[in-house]
Amino acid sequence: MTDANAHPHVSSDGRFAIVHNGVIENFAGMKKFVAGKGYTFTSETDTEALVNLIAYHYEKEPAAKNGNRFLDSVRKTLLHVDGTYGIAVLCTESPGEMVAARKGSPLILGVGDGEFILASDVSALVSRTQNVVYLKDGEIVHITPTGFTITTADMADVAPVIDRINWTIEDADMGTFSHFMEKEIFEQPAALENAMRGRFSEDQSTANFGGLNLTPSDFRQIERLQFCACGTAWHACLVAEHLIERFARIPVEVDYASEFRYRNAPLHRNTLFFVVSQSGETLDTREALREAKRKGYKVMAICNVVGSTIARESDGGIYQHAGPEIGVASTKAFTSQLLIAALVALYVGRMRDMSFSGGTQYVEALKKAPDLVRKALEQAPRIKDIAKRYAHYQDFLFLGRLSLFPIALEGALKLKEISYIHAEGYPAAEMKHGPIALVSEKCPSVFFAPKGEVFSKVVSSIQEIKARKGKTIVITTEGCELPAGLADEVITIPECHEAVLPIVASIPAQLLSYYIAAELGRDVDKPRNLAKSVTVE
Ligand code: F6R
Fold first, then answer.
1. Most ligand 1 atoms within 8 A of CB, residue of 227, 254, 281, 330 to mutate
2. DSSP-assigned letters across all residues of 463-489
3. pTM for the complete prediction?
């Protein structure tokens, strides 16, 4: 990143300024063309080619066809663009006006009190207004001091739909916390309550989803589920795979969205797709959704951001209702995805082998999740203390089994992305097939070793690490006896049902990463090289 490449970019005639989110794929040809017309460049960006092309069209055609030369020059330029963009453009000759457009990248117009705001994410504008227009691909908005109009690239008028964001200014305020990530970790009991509200059937034996747009008998035809997502949301899909296969006995496939879209996977006829995305704007996930739809499959979305592109393009879905997640590292959105995964496992399970009483017990267990998370959060002071002692290590291993293997991956990802410490997640039993070579007194291991069917197996894996002088931080169930000398540090979580365990076990991993990063003075909410929603390929 350099100052020269930072936005806004200005056309070399000084007339236009632009901010751009996306990638212009044919920018080299565009740059050559405008350079041939005398426009010059000061950066390496594709955006500068775009703004110079707007200036070129403005200069070339002084008489506007639709009565606005500024709007017309942007529209003309966009006809030549291959790639993705969310842009906002200013023109020195039209003060008080702005032209913005999107294709592939998100763009939202906030309709405030005497002001209009453009943003790629609602959390950026919720402090000014809750009234928004979610612009669609190919739409161009022209803002003037008195109002705005929306048109398509071929000049058709679009009647704007003003939606209301159900988040408030307080949601976007850090309050007494030091970082949004910390606030969001502590908001998880409430986020889980919101994710489950209204989602249990009247007889309390199964789940209830309002937005799937599938009848129970449609669902009954489904023989496989396919999940696609990226990053943390992909980890949530791995937990979904475990829970759905365990409780509903239906095969589940999980793909990275970025791989799915290119690997032309053979798919079973009766497959139902789920894409999972907090932001609902991740480009790879959206493209996986589109690919599945092109192949004729129905796609459900699990999203947090209401009205997001993925939510709108899917055939149905389940909103997370976790509230705005502002810290780049996902926390409350992740655990609410885990809760929804557990609800889907219940729903499909009850259509198959799960009995009425099995369902009611499962529902009772899920209802306890917020309180169990509250309990797990009580360990925060102890985890902060551990973090202080471990913050100087350069490498960590996170090890878990079954549904906690994805939580080990997630713990490692959290630590890497916010503290810049190298960390890897593995299934605990895989250590002996290679990673154990990394173990020394310089590489601590974080083990997930709750009470359960593989507890003794995980204990053996911890012994393997101790025998090689590795430090061990063991996350285990309250009251669980660990052999003496096995754990250098113990963090306890309350005992819980298998469907709730991944949620509760995530809490200490999040806190550990957060406190290590805070101890190191990292920019926790905005880690280097990362963006909250990844709208480029
Ligand atoms: C990590 C993190 C990312 C996102 C990923 C997908 O903490 O937040 O790995 O999970 O970029 O984002 P969404 O869920 O918005 O599609």
1. 330
2. HHHHHTT--EEEEEETTPPPPTTS-SE
3. 0.89
Check pLDDT > 70 for residue 65.
Answer: no
Name the one residue in this structure whose structure tokens are 């190919």: 138
- Which residue's C-alpha comes closest to atom 9 of ligand 1? 231
Tell me, letter by letter, the H, E, C secondary structure of 123-172.
HHCCCCCCEEEECCCCEEEEEECCEEEEEECCCCEECCCCEECCCCCHHH
In three-state secondary structure terms, 440 is coil
Q: How much is the pLDDT for 66?
A: 60
Put the strands of the sheet holding 445-449 in their side by side order: 422-427, 395-400, 445-449, 472-477, 489-493
List the structure tokens of 471: 């430090």
Number of Cβ within a 10 Å radius of residue 397? 26
167-171, 198-202, 433-437 — which is least confidently predicted?
167-171
Q: What confidence score (pLDDT) does residue 63 get?
A: 67
The answer to whether residue 332 scores a pLDDT higher than 90 is yes
Q: How far apart are CA 385 and CA 456, in angstroms?
A: 28
Instruction: Please give the single-letter amino acid code of residue 351.
Output: M
